[in-house]
UniProtKB/TrEMBL annotation:
<feature type="domain" description="Response regulatory">
    <location>
        <begin position="11"/>
        <end position="126"/>
    </location>
</feature>
<dbReference type="Pfam" id="PF00196">
    <property type="entry name" value="GerE"/>
</dbReference>
<dbReference type="InterPro" id="IPR000792">
    <property type="entry name" value="Tscrpt_reg_LuxR_C"/>
</dbReference>
<feature type="modified residue" description="4-aspartylphosphate">
    <location>
        <position position="61"/>
    </location>
</feature>
<dbReference type="InterPro" id="IPR011006">
    <property type="entry name" value="CheY-like_superfamily"/>
</dbReference>
<protein>
    <submittedName>
        <fullName>Response regulator transcription factor</fullName>
    </submittedName>
</protein>
<dbReference type="InterPro" id="IPR039420">
    <property type="entry name" value="WalR-like"/>
</dbReference>
<feature type="domain" description="HTH luxR-type">
    <location>
        <begin position="155"/>
        <end position="220"/>
    </location>
</feature>
<keyword id="KW-0597">Phosphoprotein</keyword>
<keyword id="KW-0238">DNA-binding</keyword>
<dbReference type="InterPro" id="IPR001789">
    <property type="entry name" value="Sig_transdc_resp-reg_receiver"/>
</dbReference>
<dbReference type="Pfam" id="PF00072">
    <property type="entry name" value="Response_reg"/>
</dbReference>
<dbReference type="InterPro" id="IPR016032">
    <property type="entry name" value="Sig_transdc_resp-reg_C-effctor"/>
</dbReference>
<dbReference type="InterPro" id="IPR058245">
    <property type="entry name" value="NreC/VraR/RcsB-like_REC"/>
</dbReference>
Amino acid sequence: MGDTETDEQITVMVVDDHPMWRDAVARDLEGAGFTVVATADGVAAAGRRAAATRPAVVLMDMQLPDGNGAAATAAVLQVSPDSRVLVLSASSERDDVLDAVKAGASGYLVKSASVEELLDAVRATAAGQAVFTPGLAGLVLGEYRRMSSAPADEQGPAVPQLTERETEVLRFVAKGLSAKQIATKLSLSHRTVENHVQATLRKLQLANRVELTRYAIEQGLEYP
């Protein structure tokens, strides 16, 4: 998605099992100029409608009648891998947050957020940024930092080795900076930054910047 994409060009699906809340969120989005292409009330419906509409952003509740938001996130991304999932939930429980991120969610917002915070979060998610309610990003980073410090026999497969420059670029990608902005900060050419990003994607076997952002969170990388 380009940096100049307007709200009207951002398509959204709202997944929530409470009709009044679901409809209210859809109205707020449409009132702000977003295009709501679908709503769903559960895991199965979310998968079907994501496959049919391929929304840019999916607002996902964690408590659903036929499963949870993590299962629904995985179902959506399986049929619409370019979609970005932003959880919007009443729960800020540690396990819910971590389960959502592990399933592929790009961010996590609690329902106490204001309408303006929600609209800004949808825009940021559509732009490829990771959005978390204050405190939750630290929770995720802390958990993965703890995992990375576990004994070697308790850890997963070895992580591909990135160069110092690739790691530096990755940290800026995780903050949501564009290649042009990263180039300015590091005094590099736009092409050089893109080459580093592509090299990192290949090494980590990831598809896009959203997955790079998720990887940075999972590895507990400190942002500059």
